[in-house]
Design a protein that fits this description.
The complex is a heterodimer of chains A (420) and B (297). Chain A is built from 20 helices and twelve strands. Chain A is α/β, with parallel strands linked by helices and 420 residues long. Chain A has two domains: 214 residues, D-Maltodextrin-Binding Protein, domain 2 (3-Layer(aba) Sandwich), CATH 3.40.190; 195 residues, 3-Layer(aba) Sandwich (D-Maltodextrin-Binding Protein, domain 2), CATH 3.40.190. In chain A, the strands form three sheets. In chain A, strands 1, 2, 3, 6, 11 and 12 form a six-stranded mixed beta sheet that branches. In chain A, strands 8-9-7-10 form a four-stranded mixed beta sheet, with helices on both faces. In chain A, α5 runs parallel beside α15, α10 packs antiparallel against α12 and α10 packs across α19. Chain A is globular and about 70 Å long. Chain A starts with a helix and ends with a helix. Chain B is mostly helical. Chain B has a single domain, classed as Orthogonal Bundle (MetI-like fold). The radius of gyration of chain B is 24 Å and the shape is flat. The chains are: A alpha/beta (420), B mainly alpha (297). At the A-B interface, α3, α19 and α20 of A face α2 of B.
Chain lengths: 420, 297
C-alpha cells in the first residue's frame, strides 16, 4: 500500500467519523438554536452560506442568520457583542490573527473534540492549522480557502496583443504587459485602494521575493531582511507595475477593475479568487473566455487565506452542543463541496467532490497538494494594526515619488512601532 | 410668600426637566471622554485592558507619518473650507437680500445640499470628478481633446476636490445664518449711509459685517465642527487616497478603532483631536459670549 492510498484511507475514516459526529450531537428535546454572525450578503455569498444553514438544520439545528454587511462592521459587531455579554453562538472572521486577542482573553470555546473526531490534524493544511490552533487548542472552524493574489487575464485581450503563453517568470510577465500596452490596451486592471495595492504587493513579494523572504519579514519580523537588497528589488518591481495602470485607477473598486478585464479593455488583474464571481455573472467561463494562474511557473507559491468561524465562550450545555454541531457540519465534506462551488473558494479538505468546481479552483487544489507551495497570507502572520500600518507605507510608496530606500525605512519603522 | 413658593416650584420643575440632559452629558459625553482618556494610556488592542503604558500610544501616534499627514491635511482643508464657505455664503446671503424674485425657492436650492447625506452626494461628486467618467471626459468629447481636470486622482490636488464638494454642501448653511443676520440690520443704517454717499460695498465691509459678528461666529463654530468631523466626504469620494493624500484624523481614528483593532492608539488620537478642538473653540465661544453681552448692554 503506497503513501497515497494510505492517506486516502485515513481521510475516508475521518469523513466517516465526522458524519457520525453530526448525528451524535443531536439533543433530546427541540432543535439546537444557533445565531450565526457573518458578512456574506452578496448574491453568491448568501447562496453559499445557505448551504451551511440547510445542512445544519437537517442535522437537528436551527440556524438563525445574523448577517452584517461589511467585514469590518461585522467583526466590530461581534467584538462588541462579546464584550457586552450577548455573543452570537458562532461568528465569522478571516483565517488570520484577527481573533487572536479574543483567544488570549479566554473568550472563545475551543473545538478540540470536534477537531479530534474530524481528524483535523491530518486533513487540514498546515498553514491553516498554524492559525487556528493556539497553544495546542483549536479555536476556529475553517470553512474555505481563498487565494488573494490570482492573475486573471482576458483571452481576447491576449489574442489581440498576440500573446500565446501565460508568463512563467517575472521577466515574461513584464514582457506580456509591454505587449498589451503596445496593443493599445490597459495592461494591468488596477484598483487604487490601499487593500488592493497590498494584494498586488504581496503577489509581487511572494512571486519575486520568494517564500523564504516573505516569511522572514512577515512571520519572523526580521528588520534586517527589510533592509536587504532582495526586499529592495521587490519594492522596485512593485513600483514598476504602476506604469502599466491607467489614469482612472486611483480609488477604483476591485469589481470595476475586474469589469475592465471582463470587457477585454484590460489584460490582467491581480485579485483574489472571489473575482471569478464577476466573470461568471457576465456569462464568462474559466478556460474559455478568461484564464487564470496563481503565480509564475509550476512551483509558484500559492498564498493561502480564507474564512473561519469562532465560537464565543459559554458554558450552557445546549449552546455548546450547537457550537459543536455547527463546527462539525461546516467542515464536513458534503456542505464543503456545496459551499465552495457557490463561493468561488476551494474546500478546506482534499476529500471533497470536485465536480462542481471551475478550472481555477481545480488548479488551486492541485497547487495545494504540493505543501512547499503553500504560503500563509500576510494577515495570518501580522496583527491587523501592523497590516494596516504596512498598507499605509506601501500606498505612500506607490502613489508618491518615494525612493525604495524611504519605503524600506518606513516599513521597518512600522514593524518596530507595532511591538510593545 | 405665595409668589416665592411658586418661584421655587418653577425652579424645581426646571431642574427636573433638565435632569435627563444633565445625565446624558455626564454619562454619554464626560463619562466616555474620561474612559477614552483611560484607554489611551493602556496597551489595549481589540479589547480595553487595565494596564498602564504611560504616553507610549501618544509617542507612537506622533511617529506615525499618516497621523501627522492627517493633521496637516485637516489644517489646510479647514482654512480653505471655512474661508470658502464664509465668502460664498456671505455673497449668496447678500444676493438673496436684494429682494430677488423667487427668494423662497432660491433659499431652498442653496440650503438643499446641506439636507442631503454626503454618502450619497459624495459618490456623485466622485463620478463628476473622475477623469474617465466625468467633466474631463465630457469636455474632451465636446472637442477639447487636451482638456485636463484630474484633480481627484492627483496626489497634490485631491484634497482641493474635497474642499470643493464640501463647500458646495455647507455654504447654504452659512447663507441661511447670515441672511437672518442681514434681515436684522436696521434700514435706518442704510438710509443714513446713502445720505452720506458711502458706496454700497463699503457699507457691507465696514458697517454690516461687524454688525453680523454674532451670526458669523455661530457660523464659524458650526463650520469648525464640520471640519473636525470630516469623514463621510473623504470616505465617499477618495477613501483617503490617492495614497494617503486625503487622509484626515477622523478616518485615522475609525480605521484603528475597528478594522485595525487598536483602540489604544485610536483613543490617543481622539484625545489629541479633542484637545485641539477645545483649544480653538473655547476662545471663540468666549469672544462670542462677550460680544452678545456687549450687545445687550
Amino acid at each position: 500500500m503506497n503513501e497515497a492510498t494510505r492517506r486516502t484511507r485515513a481521510i475516508a475514516a475521518a469523513v466517516l467519523a465526522t458524519a457520525c459526529a453530526g448525528t451524535w450531537a443531536a439533543p433530546p428535546a427541540g432543535p439546537l438554536k444557533a445565531t450565526v454572525s457573518h458578512w456574506w450578503t452578496s448574491g453568491g455569498e448568501s447562496a453559499a452560506i445557505r448551504q451551511f444553514a440547510d445542512a445544519f438544520n437537517a442535522a437537528g439545528g436551527q440556524w438563525i442568520d445574523q448577517a452584517v454587511a461589511g467585514a469590518e462592521q461585522s467583526r466590530a459587531s461581534t467584538t462588541n457583542r462579546i464584550v457586552g455579554g450577548n455573543a452570537p453562538v458562532a461568528a465569522q472572521f478571516n483565517t488570520s490573527r484577527q481573533f487572536r486577542d479574543i483567544v488570549d482573553q479566554g473568550l472563545l470555546n475551543n473545538l478540540d473534540d470536534v477537531a479530534a473526531k474530524g481528524n483535523w490534524d491530518r486533513i487540514l493544511p498546515q498553514t491553516i492549522i498554524d492559525v487556528i490552533r493556539i497553544n495546542g487548542h483549536y479555536y476556529a472552524a475553517p470553512v474555505d480557502i481563498h487565494m488573494p493574489a490570482w492573475f486573471f487575464y482576458s483571452k481576447k485581450a491576449f489574442a489581440q496583443a498576440r500573446i500565446k503563453d501565460e508568463p512563467r517568470t517575472w521577466e515574461e510577465f513584464i514582457a506580456t504587459l509591454d505587449k498589451l500596452k503596445a496593443a493599445g490596451l490597459i495592461p494591468l486592471a488596477f484598483g487604487g485602494q490601499v487593500w488592493q495595492e497590498k494584494i498586488v504587493f504581496d503577489a509581487v513579494f511572494a512571486q519575486l521575493g520568494g517564500p523564504e523572504l516573505f516569511l522572514k519579514i512577515y512571520r519572523d519580523r526580521d528588520v534586517k531582511a527589510v533592509a536587504s537588497p532582495a526586499f529592495r528589488n521587490v519594492l522596485v518591481a512593485f513600483r514598476q507595475l504602476r506604469a502599466y495602470t491607467d489614469p482612472g485607477a486611483p480609488g477604483r473598486n476591485w469589481n470595476d477593475a475586474t469589469a475592465l478585464v471582463v470587457s477585454n479593455r484590460a489584460g490582467i488583474q491581480i485579485m483574489g479568487d472571489w473575482a471569478k464571481g464577476e466573470f461568471s455573472a457576465a456569462g464568462q467561463v474559466a478556460g474559455r473566455d478568461f484564464g487564470c494562474f496563481p503565480g509564475f511557473g509550476v512551483k509558484a507559491p500559492y498564498i493561502v487565506a480564507g474564512d473561519a468561524f469562532v465560537f464565543p465562550k459559554t458554558s450552557k450545555p445546549h449552546v455548546v452542543a450547537a457550537q459543536k454541531l455547527l463546527a462539525t457540519v461546516m467542515t464536513a465534506p458534503g456542505p464543503q463541496a456545496a459551499f465552495s462551488a457557490r463561493k468561488g473558494s476551494i474546500p478546506i479538505r482534499p476529500d471533497v467532490d470536485l465536480s462542481q468546481l471551475d478550472m481555477c479552483a481545480r488548479m488551486g487544489i492541485a497547487a495545494m497538494q504540493d505543501k512547499a507551495r503553500q504560503l500563509p497570507n500576510a494577515e495570518m502572520l501580522v496583527e491587523p494594526d501592523l497590516n494596516g500600518a504596512l498598507q499605509d507605507v506601501l500606498t505612500n510608496y506607490w502613489n508618491r515619488k518615494q525612493t525604495p530606500e524611504q519605503a524600506q525605512a518606513a516599513f521597518a519603522q512600522a514593524m518596530k512601532d507595532n511591538a510593545w | 410668600m405665595v409668589a416665592i413658593r411658586k418661584n421655587r416650584a418653577a425652579c424645581w420643575s426646571a431642574y427636573i426637566a433638565l435632569l435627563p440632559m444633565v445625565l446624558t452629558v455626564l454619562g454619554a459625553y464626560i463619562g466616555t471622554m474620561l474612559w477614552t482618556a483611560r484607554v489611551s494610556v493602556s496597551s489595549a488592542r481589540i479589547f480595553p485592558t487595565g494596564d498602564f503604558v504611560g504616553l507610549g500610544q501618544y509617542e507612537r501616534l506622533f511617529r506615525n507619518a499618516r497621523w501627522l499627514l492627517s493633521l496637516e491635511n485637516l489644517a489646510i482643508y479647514g482654512v480653505l473650507f471655512v474661508a470658502g464657505c464664509l465668502v460664498l455664503g456671505f455673497l449668496l446671503a447678500v444676493f438673496i437680500d436684494q429682494k430677488v424674485m423667487g427668494e423662497g425657492a432660491l433659499r431652498t436650492v442653496f440650503l438643499y445640499p446641506y439636507a442631503m447625506s454626503f454618502v450619497a452626494t459624495g459618490l456623485v461628486w466622485q463620478w463628476i470628478l473622475n477623469p474617465e467618467l466625468g467633466i474631463q471626459r465630457v469636455v474632451r468629447q465636446l472637442g477639447f481633446s487636451d482638456f485636463t481636470f484630474d484633480w481627484i486622482v492627483d496626489q497634490d490636488k485631491a484634497l482641493y476636490t474635497i474642499v470643493l464638494a464640501t463647500v458646495w454642501q455647507a455654504s447654504g448653511l452659512v447663507m441661511a445664518l447670515l441672511l437672518s443676520g442681514l434681515r436684522g440690520i436696521d434700514d435706518e443704517l442704510w438710509k443714513a449711509a446713502r445720505i452720506d454717499g458711502i458706496p454700497v460695498w463699503r457699507v457691507y465691509v465696514s458697517i454690516v459685517l461687524p454688525l453680523l459678528w454674532p451670526a458669523l461666529s455661530t457660523a464659524l463654530i458650526l463650520l469648525f465642527a464640520l471640519v473636525i468631523k470630516l469623514f463621510d466626504a473623504v470616505v465617499a469620494m477618495t477613501q483617503g487616497g490617492p495614497g494617503t493624500a486625503t487622509e484626515v484624523p477622523a478616518k485615522f481614528i475609525m480605521d484603528y478603532l475597528f478594522g485595525r483593532a487598536n483602540i489604544g492608539l485610536a483613543s490617543a488620537a481622539s484625545i489629541v483631536l479633542l484637545t485641539t478642538v477645545v483649544a480653538i473653540v473655547a476662545p471663540l465661544y468666549y469672544a462670542r459670549a462677550k460680544a452678545v453681552q456687549r450687545g445687550l448692554k
